[in-house]
Amino acid sequence: MIKEKIIENVGIIYLDRPKIINSLNLEMVKDIENILKKWENDDKIKAVLFDSLCQKGFCAGGDLKTIYNDYLLNDHCQNKDEFYEEEFILDKYVKDYKKPIISHYFGIVMGGGIGLTINSDFIVCDESVNWAMPETRLGFVPDVGVSKHISKLPQALGQYLGLCGESLESSDLIKYNLANLYLDSNKYKEFLDILIDLSKEYEKEELIENLKIKTEKLKTENRQSKIDKDMKKIEKYFSYDSFDKILESLKANKEDEFAQKTLENLKGRYIFMLQVQFEKYFICKNLSKDQVFDLDLKILKYARKTGSMQEGIRSLIIDKESANWKEKSLDQVSLLKVKDLLGIEKLYNER
Length: 351
Fold this sequence. Notes:
Structural class: alpha/beta
Order of helices and strands: EEHEEHHEEHEEHHHEHHHHHHHHH
């Protein structure tokens, strides 16, 4: 499921679980960590590259079926949070890794795959990218530290992505500083050759700076994305200072196709976690990356203990039917529980 390869001074970690687009399980997480630890003190290795051998993309996130069967439904499992705990240890390790980390985004790039790589020193992406954090449909919220990056986006866009789980294209990733280089997929080999050549002469920050300069010639000009086309509507509906106002605005515009499609999208998601995510956007602005990781793990454990994670995975992945959420409307959501979960005294619109 994980393959390693060394070319000159570059260590390459390939995700190789094609049947489920490299969905991460505990074995993969530990294998990646072990390879990184082995290479960290190897003077020959000047940089690490995360890549995929799956044609459909880089990574679809966590292996939700395994999480559901081996952890959530398994009465004999002593630590039901083990996968997420180990995944977060790995993601923090990647964030603080001593050597440059480069990541290659293509095709499906979601959830845990983003968490693994979003703190890379350099991210290259191509025309096929479908980048998304769809966790509110799964009974929790965008996790693995990604909300720190979402919180840096303009308010309307950050709320739209976090609440609705909508996708970004490579043009968006470049525009909003979530990736460094957008190239056509047929130029990736040339990119790799440049990286390998530079690794013979440079290391650490100097390697990344030269990589930025030398690969500038490969970049593709940004194209108009779906997000670009929808931006006026996104700003219209997602700039409010409370989640209930967003819902009211969407409901009021019955003739607007965008509003009604967005409202239908939100109806399938867990209303309690939508309220949590709305507040989390603002909170994460003032937290460190490590603090965001810690908050994410706290929310995941809450979702597991309260059963919303189990219900989200069951409905979307296992039985493929509508979820039966505990709270079905915003008036059923306890704002005290939201505040307690997030460790805050006031909600955003109360400040």
